[in-house]
Amino acid sequence: MLHYRFPGEQLHSLEGDFISTQHIEGHNFIITDFDQKNKYFWSTDSTPKPIQTTTPYCISEAEYLLQAAQLIKDLDRGLAQKIVLSRVKKANQTLQEPEALFQKLLQQYPNALVYYFHDTCLGSWIGASPEILIERTSTHWRTMALAGTKRAGEERDFTAKEFNEHAMVTEFIESQLRQIPGANVQVSEILTYSPGPVTHLLQELNWQMPQSVLPLLLKHLHPTPAVSGLPKKVAQQYLEVIEGHERRFYAGIIGNCTVGSEKLYVNLRSAELCGQFMYCYVGGGFTEDSVPQLEWDETENKSQTLLRLL
Question: Angle at the Cα of 255 (from 253 to 261), degrees rounded to 5?
Answer without folding.
Answer: 125
